[in-house]
Amino acid sequence: MSSFDFTRCLAAALMSVALAAPAFAQPLLEYQGADRSEKIVQAAKEEGELTLYTSIAEKDIPPLIKPFEEKYGIKVKIWRAGTDKVLQRTLTEAQAGRHDVDAIHISAPEMEALSQEKVLQPVKSPLFGQLLPKAVPDHREWAATMLTVFVQAYNTDRIKKEDLPQSFEDLKDPKWKGKLGIETEDFDWFAAVVTALGEEKGVQLFRDIVATNGISVRKGHSLLTNMVVAGEVPLGLTVYNYMPEAAKERGAPIDWFTIDPVVARANGIGITRNAKHPNAALLFYDYMLSQDAQRILASLSYVPSSTQVESPLKGMELTLIDPEVSLSGMAKWSQLYDQVIVSQGRR
Fold this sequence. Notes:
alpha/beta
């Protein structure tokens, strides 16, 4: 066979493959046609599965994932860990050329870090218009699904409701000596609170609180919540809002309140650049932003990012952590948080 004939046969073969492939075989992440939904569903069902890395609470995974799997017949394979471990694993695998993960759902600052490391790819979704302002960054490589709100939790056997502090300034009162606890990595909460109070004044305030009463440092928000329930930490300063609420519903001696400013951190979802199942990941991405999933999140005491779903903390004024500012100021604020609180609490 001549080289011309070989080239012509090869071209014909490639053409036949192209004609045989459905129009939606390629990822539909930025497709905006009127038939977008239908194409995504069909393409996703052909892929049949997706792998999700997430930090969402283990108990909340089944009620969130099962409806998606039952509706579309698509299996969601999950690897769950803390946000920092999800970030580390994702970056390690990306650097090694491993592309096991299709979608990632963790805290917004870490999602922004993945974006800056070119791990994620942009998405266009008609659901963006239903989300809170700033829920989607300009690059569109992740979108906020929910807000995790930092609240203060107290043991109801150890502290009376009428004795609760009304401000952070109140925590300088010696009656709080040995009763305060905080999570070891919440430097972004610290940054938001201190900035709102005035940086110099805020930093000095926390120095005074630690010097007068001390602050016990605990690793993990679940652990801190459990310590409040046990009475070892009568008042936890940085607890995720849904944790004490869930414990309270189980009959544990815990309740929560807020001291202004009330700080919230977004969690977001994104799709990896080398996803093996990009269309299934996109279908799940849209599902997480849909009213169906947003209602489930609200029922689990999370604050939904959708303006179409009522928030369990409706009417509460929130100070949102800016993920880009959190990243750019990480060195400064993590060092300051360690100096003022963490290192002192470990003495």
